[in-house]
Design brief:
52% helix; 269 residues; binds NADP nicotinamide-adenine-dinucleotide phosphate; 7-stranded parallel β-sheet
Length: 269
């Protein structure tokens, strides 16, 4: 698909990968709606989008995606602002960083993560599909390698991203060529997502990959938009990410051991 002059909605556009996606869509000359809860951060990203290219347009739509009504209203307001919709980027998400047994309230954590990462994605898609059918548009979902492989300390997060894959892989098969779907699976990306988990009580006990093993948010966004332009079904980033599905088939225990080691779990138990 062509991204110049595209009418796009990006969720989670106030920070990290979503902010970079919005700015790079601006560089293509797209018209972009920016959605998240923190208005002041959205305003700053909108300014970057407008500066990216004279033809780029940015609308700020503050929203909490944790209710179905808010998701529906966000799509309606975006379609109204843009005069239609060609690209829906489902990127907003929250994570966790703790062993399951260490979470103070495991079920509440699992439900909160599912609400933002999975149910909001479903609600946005339900409301957007008639508009995307009309434009023969595309949905880009920012999932994770954790949507296709396990990772210790991310139990509920992995479940939410696996749900995303089951839903969108099946929906793609239903829709055929009517609306395209790209599932993007980044590995570790340097964004505030882990600080947010800590601040919101979803754990901070796990060690993390060193900074030099994390991709920048700008590079991640560039790869995602390249995959959207090439109309790819799925994008797996990093060599380890491409290898892990095969390793799972051949020697599943190896992934468990490597990820336990990388996250320092064996040193702690
Ligand atoms: N960073 C990584 O290592 C990594 C790896 C693989 C996949 N991902 C995925 O990439 C996506 C973006 O994450 P990120 O790393 O860029 O994290 P981030 O910097 O923390 O950004 C998360 C975004 O989601 C928004 N958001 C969260 N809850 C929301 C809610 N209830 N309503 C509206 N917006 C909400 C946040 O905005 P407000 O707080 O302003 O609402 C923020 O803009 C997520 O789906 C994540 O799972 C990240």
């Amino acid at each position: 698909m062509k991204l110049d002059d595209t009418r796009a909605l990006v969720t989670g556009a106030s920070s990290g990968i979503g902010a970079e996606l919005a700015v790079q869509l601006g560089e293509y000359g797209a018209r972009v709606c920016l959605a998240a809860r923190r208005r002041e951060l959205l305003d700053a990203v909108a300014e970057r989008v407008r500066r990216a290219k004279p033809s780029a347009v940015a609308h700020v739509l503050p929203v909490d995606l944790d209710t179905e009504a808010a998701c529906r209203e966000l799509i309606d307001r975006s379609v109204e602002a843009l005069g239609g919709l060609d690209l829906l980027v489902i990127n907003a998400g929250i994570s966790m960083n703790a062993r399951f047994e260490e979470l103070p309230d495991p079920l509440a954590t699992a439900r909160a993560i599912m609400e933002t990462n999975y149910f909001a994605a479903v609600a946005l898609t339900a409301q957007a599909l008639p508009h995307l059918r009309r434009s023969r548009g595309r949905i880009v979902v920012v999932s994770s390698l954790v949507g296709v492989a396990p990772l210790p300390t991310r139990t509920a997060y992995a479940a939410s991203k696996h749900a995303v894959h089951g839903f969108f892989d099946s929906l793609r098969a239903e829709l055929g060529a009517a609306v395209g779907i790209t599932l993007a699976c980044p590995g570790a990306v340097a964004t505030p997502i882990r600080e947010v988990s800590k601040a919101q009580g979803r754990g901070a006990t796990a060690a993390e990959l060193p900074d030099d093993e994390q991709m920048s948010a700008a590079e991640c966004a560039r790869l995602i938009l390249d995959a959207a332009r090439a109309e790819k079904r799925e994008l797996r980033m990093t060599a380890a990410g491409k290898l892990s599905p095969w390793m799972r088939l051949i020697a599943p225990g190896v992934i468990d051991r490597v990820t336990r080691y990388k996250l320092g779990l064996d040193r702690r138990s």
